[in-house]
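Recall from the previous chapter that SMILES is a line notation for molecules. Here it describes flavin-adenine dinucleotide.
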Amino acid sequence: MARGGSFTPMPAQSYLTPTTWDAALSALQQPGALPASGGTDLVPLMRDGIVDPETLVDLRHLPRGREIALDTDGNLRIGAAVTLDTLAHDPLIAAHAPALALAAASVGSQPLREAGTLGGNLCQRVRCWYYRGNHPCLRRGGNLCSAEIGENQYHGIFRTGGCVVAHPSDCAVALAAYEATIDVRGASGARAVPMREFLVPSSARLDQETSLGAGEVVEAVVVPAGSLGGQQVFIKQMQRAAWDFALVSIAATRRNDSEVRLVLGGVANVPWRVTDSIEEDVASGGLSDDDIETLAQRALYDATPLSGNAYKLDIAAALLRRAIARLARA
Ligand SMILES: Cc1cc2nc3c(=O)[nH]c(=O)nc-3n(C[C@H](O)[C@H](O)[C@H](O)COP(=O)(O)OP(=O)(O)OC[C@H]3O[C@@H](n4cnc5c(N)ncnc54)[C@H](O)[C@@H]3O)c2cc1C
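With both inputs in hand, we obtain:
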């Protein structure tokens, strides 16, 4: 795919490129309309018959969609159509939100980052082979999670509902650590959704992974001023060195007010924030190696790995140790 370029939609009847929000939201209200950005997940979903849109509404030409800017309150606003490659290299992101830059840089491959957008990254569908392979799993209307009794080595180790898939978005992990807000727009207006409510666990709903209502889309992501800067860590462990989803990842921040946030990826339906008592212990500092080991184990105390993924406990513990040590000793 070309840099920021277009894709050829597969069977959709029409493909719209609105340049105003009125036009985009009105198009999205038509039956069978779906939002589209870089198409790196959407086209495979269409090819696999998971979605069958009549109209694709390309959201990449809307006002401020590709803008990255600090607002007057010092919050960092990132348009939903900003590509992952831009996120990985933008000087403002590097200066204020380096964990997000690292998360974006870790996604897939260079062509994928050049086409894929932040909005699409947050709204991508889950990567379970049963779901994608048209198996009658819970998300496909079946009455059991095929992965729970089948092949589950890449799935979650914390239970967040009947479906045990791990959310695939790398950017979501950093944004959860920032306690970012997602600016959402729909025909009935605009609203700001806290990141912890934007991605929803399978206990809440199975038909989608976000709390977006019908016809609603992501307009921008806002990282609050208090989460910018400080110390930031993002580490992603993959099975192979590139072009892969996280087995486990971690975003860890020590904000300028000294508060610590620790969020794991690849372990649950949603980014998994460790309990705040552990974050407080890390924030208080003065940690020995034994203390760090104890905190890492405490963070994983409630994990219930599946038949094929207990190895994720070791990876998560290792990433927690590395991230805590970096925050504690910098
Ligand atoms: C080989 C491969 C490897 C990958 N590796 C990774 C990885 O390592 N880490 C990772 O995080 N992801 C990975 N991905 C997933 C994904 O393709 C990218 O993360 C990308 O960011 C998706 O963005 P997009 O703009 O292409 O979204 P699209 O494909 O255009 O859309 C994805 C979904 O979001 C919806 N959508 C798009 N934009 C919006 C919006 N603004 N508001 C509401 N809904 C919207 C679409 O309807 C669709 O359902 C990978 C994908 C592939 C094919």
